[in-house]
What we know:
single chain; 4-stranded parallel sheet; alpha/beta; two-stranded antiparallel sheet; 10 strands
Amino acid sequence: MSNQFAKQSEGRDRVSSALDLLIILLCFVTTHRVYLGDLDFSSERLAVMLVTIASSFLVLAIGGVYRESRSQYLHEEIGRLFICWMVIIFSVSLFAFLSKVAVEVSRLWFGISIGTAFLLSAALRIVVSLMLAAAHKQGLKTSSIVVIGGGHEAQMVLTRLEANPAVGVRVAAIFDSKGVGHSVPESGHSITGNLDDVLPFVEHMRQLGQPIDEVWLALPLEQVQVMRTVIDKLNDSSVDVCIVPDMFAMQLLSGAQMRVADMAVVNVSDIRIAGTAERFKTVFDTVVASIAVTVLLPVMVAIAIAIKLESKGPVLFRQRRYGMNGQEIEVWKFRSMRVDKSEDVDKRVRQATRGDERVTRVGALLRRTSMDELPQFYNVLQGQMSIVGPRPHAVSHNEEYRHQIDGYMMRHKIKPGITGWAQVNGWRGETDTLEKMEKRVQYDLEYIRDWSAWFDIKIMLLTVVRGFSGKNVY
């Protein structure tokens, strides 16, 4: 956004932060007054309240509730807020336990206070979002942009902006080399004019007192000469020019930059999670996997017995798959099919299909609920896999698709995961078409580029909610 709108957004973020802290304070004070009939805080309750406020200030800021809220859909913002509040509750509970003030503090008092604070904080965001959306529809508090492009990139821009009106971006016109008489695919938006009409339009709107704030170049990278031409023409205006990058441009922008012999070099294949972030992810995976194995051990023993009683063969199914950097690893699953010796002969792996006669009754239940993946927690403890990451495919499938899908092998820049961003978005199970695999790869690369600890937690929670269903799971 332009500097004006960036400053306005920063101001809104500071106000939101102050309101959240004020809500927490008021909830504790009100609950105390209603629950105990006075405002005489004991030192223990005062300590819990102050730690909650301090934890909220840090966690909500670090968790991106303020910094990134403008770029999210409302449900994503509420989801991020919920995750942060879970961390706050855990942090305060840990403090109360270690400091032994938990004995003197009512859990009901704390629960009502913290629960009410979260609900009010979420309600505040919903109300503000609805008010902003209404204001934007009336043309108030909006930034006016011009979109350059008439292809898939422009269509994506228009779709995203229409789906998220609270961001307050209004498309004033669309220009493309095709000119008048054409429209952006699947959007219904007509093209206003050709590229020569952009500067006159911008100047005309300025003279009318309705200035264009930004011009967005939504073009594929191969049209870089067109971008340069538009930028050169707009140098004579005061409008800001922004580029909406396609997938290849994203690789350029997010690639690791370094200097070699006083030359700027960009590694466009370097989308891995590196440094401190990678070490944090490893520790996080180990802790979660250790807890999961301990808690789920009785369940896994029961599953093993059920598999053994129903059909002959091993309890575990082991398969060679690609891990980090394309190295082969052995992935474990509970066996959900009858042993098929033909696959050992021709070295091919047949994906399960609807009504597949190889799937056992116990196996069908395991596959439907994703419990056949539980042994992969041991793969995580071995350092071969992660809790969250691109799902590993059979070696034969990798060799088939790597030559058909651009960027396919880039998904192996990090450890494969038990669950992933593609899976919680519905792309799990059978991939019987190239388009389905392309969608998986698209979500996998998006996950790697946008990784954060909060992203992992979000995917884990979505796995619990959505992980027991899937239209392509047989």
